Amino acid sequence: MGRIIIPIELRRQRRIRRGVRLEVTLEGDRVVLRRHGPFCVFCDSAEDLRPFRGKHVCYQCIMDAR
Ligand SMILES: [Zn+2]
Predict the structure, then answer these.
(1) How far is the CA of 63 from the centre of ligand 1 (A)?
(2) Where are the beta strands (DSSP E) in 8-53?
(3) 63 to each of 3, 46, 50, 57, 60, how far by Cα in Å?
């Protein structure tokens, strides 16, 4: 059960929210974490996404734009 702990400062800085899926890959001697899956183009949320002109926009941003 290999686990990686991401410091809270880094999570805040990179806006990695709880429950966000990360891809783990090895590049040479580096462990690389990348966010997995689509995100809202405006706020980076992964929740309640709707397709919009080939991108993803979350419902909250759609409502905020009205
Ligand atoms: Zn959004």
Answers:
(1) 9
(2) 22-27, 30-35, 49-52
(3) 37, 16, 12, 10, 5
Q: Is the dihedral of CA 26, 3, 21, 34 positive or negative?
A: negative
Domain coordinates in residue numbering, the chain = 8-64
d(CA 66, CA 64): 5
Average pLDDT per run of 10 along the chain, which is 66 residues long?
A: 86 82 89 85 90 94 92
**Count, residues in the chain:** 66
CA of 31 to the centre of ligand 1 (A): 29
Question: pTM of the entire structure?
Answer: 0.52
